[in-house]
C-alpha cells in the first residue's frame, strides 16, 4: 500500500482498531472490569467505528468465539486436568524431591529452574507459582542461600513456558489465530525456551539476589503429605507424553512421505487433542492410584471450575480477533507492513509489548496482537508462522508492572517492596521477552 493508495477508509479502520484497544485498556486498568467484558465491549466499539453492520458485527464476534473455544478450549481443559492430577497425586512433590535431592550448592538455582520447567509444562502460571513458593522457601531455609537466588530461576522457568510453550492458553491462542503448526511451534518454543530460562533465571538471579535481599518468613507448620506418591519415572512420563507425541507429529511431517503408515500413526497420536487426552488417561492410571476412585473423580472435577475465567477471556479474544479480521483492519496493517518492508515478527512482538504494557495481561496481549497480524501469516511457510506465534508470545511477557496481577502475586508471596519487585520480577520478565525475540528473529532468517 503506497502513500497514494492510503484512503480515508483505511484511516478509519486504523482509528477503529486504536479506539477498540484503548477502550479495552481503560476498562481493564482504570475501571477494573473483567477482561472478558472489556474484550466484548472493545469488539463492539471497534466494529461500529469501522462501519460494520450490527448483524455482521454480532455474527463475526460469535463466529470468533465459537471457533476459538472449539480449537483451544478443550485443550486448556485437558491441560488443567493434567496439572491438577500432578498436584493432587503428589507427583509434583516427587519431581521436586528427586531433582533437589541430587542438587546442592551452586547447582540449586539450576535445579529450581528445571523443577519449574517440568511442573510448568502442564500447569497454568498461577497454579505452578502457588505450588513452587513453599518449595523455594523450604530450599532457601535448608541451604541458607538467598531467597531471590532460588526464586528467580523458578519464576523464569514458569514464565517462559507460560508465554512460549503450548498447552498454555497464550501460545495456543496464537497458534490458532495464525494457523501455525502446533507441534512445530512446540518444538521451536522449547528450543527458544532453554537458553531464555538460563539467562533470565540462574544467571540473572545472581544480580536479583543482591538487589532484593529478602528475609525468610516464619516457617509454617508441616502439612501432611500423601503416603503413596507416584514414582518419578511415572510422573515424568506423564508430563512429557503430550510433548513427545506432538513433537513426533511435527518431525514426521518433515521427515516422512505422506503415504508412510508410520506418519499416519504419528499424525493421529500427535494431534493436540489426542496427545493431551492420552496424557490425561495415562495420568489417571499412573498418578491416580494413591487417590482412589473418589479422590480421582474429585481431582478431575476440581480442575475445571478455575479455568472458567480463562476460557471466557480466550473466547472473547477470539471474537475480538475475528472482528478485526472481518472489518478489514488486518489487511490494512498487512499492506503497511509489506510496503515498509518491516519484519512481521518484530511487528507482532512490538504490538504485543504495547498491549502488555497497557493492559498488564499476557493473554490479552497475545490474543490482540495475533488477531491484528493474522493476515501476515496467511502466506507464510509453516516454520515462519510458528516463529511469528512465538514472537507474539515473547512480546506478551515484556515488563510486568503494577497493572499485572502476577506482579502483586510475586510481591506478596516473597514479601518484596514494590521497588524490589520491579528490580527482580519486572526486569526478569523484560529479559525473557528481549532474549526470546533476539533468538526468534535470527531463527526466522536461518529456517
Describe this entry's structure for a reader.
With 447 residues, the protein is mainly α. 77% of the residues lie in helices and 0% in strands. It has helices at 8-29, 35-49, 54-88, 91-101, 108-120, 125-143, 147-164, 169-178, 182-211, 232-255, 261-269, 272-286, 292-303, 308-327, 329-340, 344-359, 362-373, 382-395, 405-414, 418-446. The longest helix is centred in the N-terminal third of the chain and has 35 residues, at 54-88.
Mind sketching the topology for me?
Blueprint lengths: L7 H22 L5 H15 L4 H35 L2 H11 L6 H13 L4 H19 L3 H18 L4 H10 L3 H30 L20 H24 L5 H9 L2 H15 L5 H12 L4 H20 L1 H12 L3 H16 L2 H12 L8 H14 L9 H10 L3 H29 L1
Helix pairs in contact: 1-2, 2-3, 2-14, 3-8, 3-12, 3-13, 3-14, 4-5, 4-10, 5-6, 5-7, 6-7, 7-9, 7-20, 8-14, 8-17, 8-18, 9-10, 9-18, 9-20, 10-11, 10-12, 14-17, 16-17, 16-18, 17-18, 18-20, 19-20
User: SSE order in H/E notation?
Assistant: HHHHHHHHHHHHHHHHHHHH
Radius of gyration: 22 Å
Give the overall shape. Answer: globular
Share of helix, binned: over 70%
The main sheet comes to:
none
Gap between N and C termini, in Å? 28 Å
What class would the helix/strand composition place it in? mainly alpha
Brief summary of the model shown:
This protein is mainly alpha-helical. The protein has helices at residues 8-29, 35-49, 54-88, 91-101, 108-120, 125-143, 147-164, 169-178, 182-211, 232-255, 261-269, 272-286, 292-303, 308-327, 329-340, 344-359, 362-373, 382-395, 405-414, 418-446.
Amino acid at each position: 500500500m503506497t502513500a497514494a493508495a492510503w484512503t480515508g477508509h483505511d484511516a478509519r479502520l486504523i482509528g477503529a482498531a486504536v479506539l477498540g484497544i484503548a477502550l479495552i485498556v481503560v476498562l481493564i486498568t482504570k475501571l477494573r472490569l473483567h477482561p472478558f467484558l472489556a474484550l466484548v465491549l472493545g469488539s463492539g466499539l471497534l466494529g461500529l467505528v469501522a462501519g460494520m453492520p450490527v448483524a455482521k458485527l454480532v455474527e463475526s464476534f460469535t463466529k470468533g468465539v465459537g471457533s476459538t473455544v472449539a480449537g483451544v478450549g478443550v485443550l486448556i481443559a485437558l491441560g488443567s486436568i493434567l496439572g491438577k492430577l500432578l498436584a493432587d497425586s503428589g507427583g509434583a512433590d516427587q519431581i521436586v524431591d528427586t531433582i533437589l535431592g541430587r542438587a546442592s550448592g551452586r547447582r540449586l538455582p539450576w535445579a529450581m529452574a528445571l523443577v519449574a520447567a517440568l511442573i510448568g509444562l502442564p500447569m497454568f502460571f498461577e497454579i505452578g507459582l502457588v505450588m513452587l513458593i513453599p518449595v523455594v522457601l523450604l530450599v532457601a531455609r535448608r541451604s541458607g542461600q538467598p531467597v531471590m537466588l532460588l526464586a528467580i530461576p523458578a519464576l523464569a522457568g514458569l514464565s517462559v513456558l507460560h508465554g512460549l510453550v503450548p498447552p498454555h492458553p497464550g501460545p495456543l491462542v496464537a497458534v490458532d489465530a495464525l494457523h501455525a503448526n502446533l507441534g512445530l511451534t512446540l518444538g521451536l518454543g522449547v528450543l527458544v525456551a532453554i537458553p531464555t530460562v538460563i539467562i533470565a533465571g540462574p544467571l540473572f538471579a545472581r544480580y536479583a539476589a543482591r538487589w532484593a535481599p529478602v528475609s525468610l518468613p516464619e516457617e509454617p507448620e508441616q502439612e501432611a503429605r500423601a503416603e503413596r506418591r507416584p514414582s518419578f519415572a511415572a510422573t515424568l512420563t506423564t508430563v512429557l507424553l503430550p510433548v513427545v507425541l506432538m513433537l513426533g507429529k511435527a518431525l514426521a511431517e518433515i521427515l516422512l512421505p505422506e503415504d508412510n503408515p508410520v506418519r499416519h500413526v504419528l499424525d493421529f497420536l500427535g494431534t493436540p487433542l489426542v496427545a493431551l487426552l492420552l496424557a490425561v488417561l495415562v495420568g489417571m492410571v499412573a498418578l491416580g492410584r494413591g487417590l482412589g476412585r473418589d479422590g480421582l473423580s474429585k481431582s478431575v472435577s476440581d480442575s475445571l471450575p478455575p479455568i472458567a475465567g480463562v476460557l471466557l477471556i480466550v473466547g472473547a479474544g477470539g471474537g475480538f480477533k475475528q472482528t478485526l479480521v472481518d472489518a478489514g483492519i488486518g489487511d490494512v496493517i498487512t499492506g503497511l507492513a509489506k510496503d515498509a518492508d518491516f519484519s512481521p515478527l518484530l511487528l507482532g512482538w512490538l504490538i504485543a509489548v504495547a498491549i502488555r504494557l497497557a493492559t498488564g495481561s499476557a493473554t490479552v496481549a497475545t490474543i490482540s496482537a495475533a488477531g491484528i497480524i493474522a493476515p501476515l501469516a496467511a502466506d507464510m511457510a509453516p516454520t515462519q508462522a510458528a516463529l511469528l506465534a512465538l514472537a507474539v508470545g515473547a512480546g506478551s511477557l515484556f515488563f510486568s508492572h503494577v497493572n499485572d496481577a502476577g506482579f502483586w502475586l510475586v510481591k506478596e508471596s516473597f514479601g518484596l517492596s514494590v521497588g524490589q519487585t520491579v528490580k527482580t520480577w519486572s526486569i526478569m520478565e523484560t529479559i525473557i521477552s528481549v532474549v526470546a525475540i533476539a533468538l526468534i528473529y535470527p531463527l526466522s532468517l536461518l529456517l
